[in-house]
Amino acid sequence: MNRLLQNMNPQQQEGIQAVDGPVLLLAGAGSGKTRVITHRIAYLIEERGVLPDSILAVTFTNKAAKEMAERVEKILNHNSLAKPTLATFHSFCVRVLRRDIEALQINGKGLTRAFAIYDETDQQAVVKTALKRLSIDDKTLKPRVVLGRISWAKNHMIDPQQYFLASANPMEEKIAHVFEIYKKELLKANALDFDDLLLETVRLLKSSAEVRERYNRRYRYLLIDEYQDTNHPQYELMTLLAGPEKNVCVVGDEDQSIYSWRGADIKNILEFEKDFPNVRTIRLEQNYRSTQVILEGASAVVAQNTQRKGKTLWTAREGGSLIGYYEAPDGENEALFVADHIRKYLREADGQEGLPRCAVLYRTNSQSRLVEEALRRYNIQYHMVGGFSFYDRAEVKDLLSYMKLALNPHDSIALGRVINSPVRGIGKTTLETLERMALSSGMSTWDAIGAAIKDKLLPPRALTALGNFRRLIEDARAMLEPDFAEKLSADVAGDASLPEGVAEQSEDVSFGFGAASDGELAIAAATEDTGADTSFDTSFNFGFDFGPTEEMSTIAPENAANSDSSQGIDSASFNPFASVASKTKHDKKFPSIVSRRDEETSTPSEVSTSEDRPAFRNPGDPATLPELIKFLNDRSGYIRALEEEATPEAFSRIENLKELANAASDAQERGETLHEFLDHAALISDADSYSEEARVTLMTLHAAKGLEFPLVFMTGMEEGLFPSSRTMVDPTGLEEERRLCYVGMTRAMDTLVMTRARYRRRYGNDMPESSVPSRFLEEVPSRLMEDLGSPAARPQFSTSDYDSGYRGAYATPYPKANRFGSKNFDEGERHYNYEDEDQSGERASRSSSTGKTSANRSMDNIA
Ligand code: ATP
Ligand code: MG
Questions:
Q1: Which atom of ligand 1 is nearest to the CA of 12?
Q2: Looking at residues 418-440, what average pLDDT do you find?
Q3: Is the pLDDT of residue 338 over 60?
Q4: Which GO terms describe its molecular function (predicted)?
C-alpha cells in the first residue's frame, strides 16, 4: 500500500485518493480532516505527479497555513523547488490583486497594482470625511458603527444602492450615503480595505474570463480547511477558482462553526452539494485525538444543539481520565490552580517521551491576565496566541496613557495616543499645529493646548474639543490630589451653569452619599461646550463614590451601607446642584439606573447599589486606582464608543478595559500607588515570558480551532462569561457558544480540566460577584466528571450527591457572601492550597497559612 495511505482508515483513504472532482468531507472534531488535506496534497504530488504549484490549499489563519506547509514538507520528505500555495483567503487575494487588479480598470480608470491596503484607522478617517461632507455629526453616527455596517453589507455583497433601498430608517439611509462616499474615496485613494480584498478578487474573477481561466489553469487542485467558517464572498471565490474541472476538496464540521458573526454561513455547506451536483461526500467517524471520556463529554454538550445534522464519532482510546472540574473561590485562585496543575504536569512529563504541551483556553482575551500572572509566579514560560499580552493591547495602552497623563500631562506620547481616542473631533491637523507650536516655542504639547485655548489660535470647533479634553485630564489630575472632590466642585461651579433638565437626566440613585453630584458637575462642564446630547457621556454610572464628605464621614460605614442612598446628598456645601439631585432622588420617579449605557449593557449584577460599596477611603484622600480608571473610562467616552461599535472585537476590548480596572483593584489592595501600578504594567509587557518553544499556550477558544493538546484547561466556565451574556438570550447565539464549547473540549487529547470561579471580580468592583456555573458544565454527564478538590466554602454535598445531585447543587445560587469576611467564605480559603513540597529554584510562594492575602504574595513574586 502506498505509504501515504498507510495508517489511514478507509474513509480517509477515500478522501486522499478521490482527487478528481468535488469532494465534501464532513466530519467531527479530531477525525483527521486536516490530516486528510495534508496527505492529499502529498498524494497529488507524489502519486499523481501533479506539479506542486498547481495546488492551492486555503486555511483559516496564517499560522495554520504555515503549519500545513511544514507538515506537507515532512511527509514528502524532500525539498522540491516548487511548492504548493498554502494561504489564507486574504493573503491569496492580495497575491491575485497585486498581479491582476488592473484587469478591472475601465478605460484606464480604476485601481492599480500599487493599491494601498487600508487598515481600520485609515478606514475611520475616510468615514469621518464622508460624515463631514454630509454634515452628519460623528457623535450621532459613530465612524466605527458605520464601518461595522459597511463591512456587514460588503460581506453580504450588498452595495450602497441596495443598502439604501433596504434601509428602514433615516439612520440607515445616512449610512448608505456614507457607504457610497466611502467607496468612492477608496477608489480615489487607490485603496482597498480588508473586505475589498476578497470582494474585488471575486469581482475580478467574475468579470474577466481571461484572468479567471488563467487561475483555473494554474490552480488545478483546490483544498479548503475549516470550510464551515467561510463566508459568502469566500464561497464565491472558491466556486470561481474551482473552474470547470472542479477538483475541489472542502473539509469541515458544522458543529465547529464559530464565526457566524463574521458572516460565515452554514448554508455554504448545503450550497456546496447543490453547486457541485456530482460531489462525493465523505464522512469520517473515528476520532483519533481524544479519549473516550473527553469525546463523550464533548458530544453530549453539542448534542443539546438543535441546529445540527448530528453524527456519530467514536474513538479507540477507551476510557481515559475523567474530565476534571475545579471550582475556585475566585479568579485568582482559579489561575493559581491552573498554574500549579501545569507545573506538576510539566514536571511529571519530564523525561517521558514526547513534548509535553498544554493549553489554557478562555472565552475572552481579558481572562488571560490572571493566568499570566499566576504562570509568572511559578516561573513557567508560556506563549500567548492572539497577539499581545494583556498590557500590550491598544485599548489597555490607551487607558494607561490616560492614567499617565493624569500624573504627567506633558507626556506627549501618551497625549498623542489618546487626544483623539476615542474620536472627539481633534483631527490630525489640529494635533500637527499643536506639535508645531510646541516645537517652535519649546512647550510641551499640553502647554501648547493651553496657549491655543487662551489665545484662540485654532478654529472654534477644535478649541471646544481641546477644551473638553483638557478638562478631562485636569479632572483626572484633581482626583489624585487630596480633597480632590471639593476642589473639583469648587472649580467647576465657578464657570459652569447647569442647563435645564440635565440634572434630572443624570439622576442616579445607584450612588450613595453624594457621588452623583460629581457626575452632574461633570455634565454641567461638558454640556457647556458640547450641548445636551453629551450629557449621558459624563454621567457616572459605575456606582463608585468620590469619598464621603465631611458630613458623610460621620455615618459609620455599616450604617451608610444600609442607609437610603439619599442620605448625605443634601450637603449643599459639597454639591452646588444638591437641591436638584436630592429632589429627584426622593421622588424616585426615574428608573434607578439612568445611563443609557447601563440600560443597554449592564446585567443587573453589574450595577452596584449603595449596599455593596463600602466606604473604603477616608475623607479627603485622593481617589483610588479603580476610581480613577472608572472615571477615565467613563468621562473619556472610551467604553461608550466601543459599546456603540457593538462588534465582538469591541466587546472584547471592553472586557479588557474592565479587566484593567480589576488589575487596579488588586494593585490597590496591595497598596500600590499609581506610579507603581504603571511601572508594573510597563514591566509586564516585556516580552520576557514569550517563547515560541513554550510548552504552555494561552489563547481564546476561537483561536484554538484546529489545534490539539494533551492537556487542556477551559477556564471561566460561568454563565455570562461562557456562554457570554450577549448570547444567552438568543437561541442561535447560544448554539454558537455551545459549538465553541465543543471546539474547546475537543482540543484535549488526554486530559481536560474545566474550571470556574465562584466569585469573580467584574469591572474592578470591590467585591467579586458570585457566578452561576456554565450550563455547559451541566450538559456534561456527571459520570464523566470528577471534582479536583475544589476547596470548601460551597454548599456541602457528599460524593454521592455529586453524582446524583450535581445539577441541583449547581442550580442553587450560593449565598451572597463577602470576601472580606463572611461565614462561608473566609480570606484563608481564597488561596489555592498548593502542595508543600520542595520546589528549588521556584519563586512561587507556597504559603497558604501566612495570613497574607494572595495579592500580597503575588506582589512578592512579581517584583
Ligand atoms: P479538527 O476538527 O479539530 O480540525 P481534524 O478532523 O482536522 O480535527 P486532525 O487534526 O487532522 O483532525 O487529526 C486529529 C489527530 O488525529 C491528529 O493528531 C492526527 O494526526 C490524528 N490522526 C488522524 N487520523 C489518524 C489515523 N488514521 N491514524 C492515527 N492518527 C490519526
Ligand atoms: Mg482540522
A1: 27
A2: 88
A3: yes
A4: 3'-5' DNA helicase activity; ATP binding; DNA binding; hydrolase activity
Within its chain, how far is the Cα of 392 from the centroid? Answer: 13
Helix axes 394-407, 674-684, angle to 10 degrees: 150
Q: Any binding-site annotation on 805?
A: no
Which of the residue ranges 69-83, 169-183, 641-655 would you say has the lowest mean pLDDT?
A: 69-83
d(CA 580, CA 578): 5
Average of per-residue pLDDT across 471-478: 93
Which member of 33, 174, 369, 758 is catalytic? Answer: 33
The answer to whether residues 102 and 71 touch, using CB atoms and an 8 Å cutoff, is no
pLDDT for residue 631: 92
- 808 known member of a binding site: no
- pLDDT for residue 575: 27
SS3 248: strand
Query: Which atom of ligand 1 lies nearest, measured to the CA of 746?
Result: 3
Distance 383 CA to ligand 2 centre (A): 21
What distance in Å separates the CA atoms of residue 297 and residue 271, rounded to the nearest whole number? 31
> Please, are residues 47 and 4 in contact by the beta-carbon 8 Å criterion?
yes
32 C-beta closer than 6 A to ligand 1 = yes
- Residue 782 CA to residue 777 CA, distance in Å, equals 9
The CB of 289 under 6 Å from ligand 1? The reply is yes
pLDDT at 519: 29
Taking alpha carbons only, the member of 22, 25, 39, 41 closest to residue 85 is 41
Determine the Cα–Cα distance for residues 371 and 165; give it in Å rounded to an integer: 49
Which has the closest alpha carbon to 774: 758, 788, 763?
758
Atom of ligand 1 nearest to the CA of 36: 11
Whether 843 is catalytic is: no
For helices 625-635 and 648-670, give the axis angle rounded to 10 degrees.
Answer: 150
Contacts of residue 772, Cβ cutoff 8 Å, sequence gap at least 6: 718, 719, 720, 810, 813
How far does residue 1's CA lie from ligand 1's centre (Å)?
20
Give me the pLDDT at residue 568, please: 29
| Contacts (Cβ under 8 Å, ≥6 apart) of 397 | 391, 417
For ligand 1, whether the C-beta of 35 sits within 6 Å is yes
Residue 439 to residue 42: CA distance in whole angstroms: 61
Mean pLDDT of 808-820: 29
Percentage of residues in the chain having pLDDT higher than 70: 71
- What pLDDT does residue 613 have? 30
In the structure, how many helices (H) and strands (E) does the chain have? 36, 18
The three grid cell numbers given for residue 130, joined into one nine-digit string: 464622508
pLDDT of the residue at 821: 24
Q: How far is CA 618 from CA 482, 547, 557, 570, in A?
A: 10, 7, 11, 20
- Could you tell me the distance, in angstroms and rounded to a whole number, from the CA of residue 190 to the centre of ligand 2? 37
- State if residue 706 touches ligand 1 by the CB under 6 angstroms criterion: yes
Concerning whether 226 is annotated as a catalytic residue, the answer is: yes
Ligand nearest to the CA of 257: 1
The ligand 1 atom at the shortest distance from the C-alpha of residue 9 is 27
Condensed to tens digits (0 to 9), the pLDDT of residues 640-668 reads 999 988 887 788 889 889 888 888 888 88
Whether residue 228 lies in the annotated active site: no
Choosing from 193, 196, 225, 327, the catalytic residue is 225
Nearest to residue 178, comparing CAs of 115, 139, 135? 135
Indicate if ligand 1 lies below 6 Å from the C-beta of 30: yes
Q: Is the pLDDT of residue 799 over 60?
A: no
DSSP string, 809-846: HHHSPPPP--TTSBTTB-GGGGS--------TT-----
d(CA 229, CA 260): 7
d(CA 84, CA 13): 21
**What's the DSSP call for residue 510?**
T
Known binding residue 487? Answer is no
Across 179-193, 201-215, 262-276, least confident range: 262-276
Catalytic residue among 34, 59, 123, 584: 34
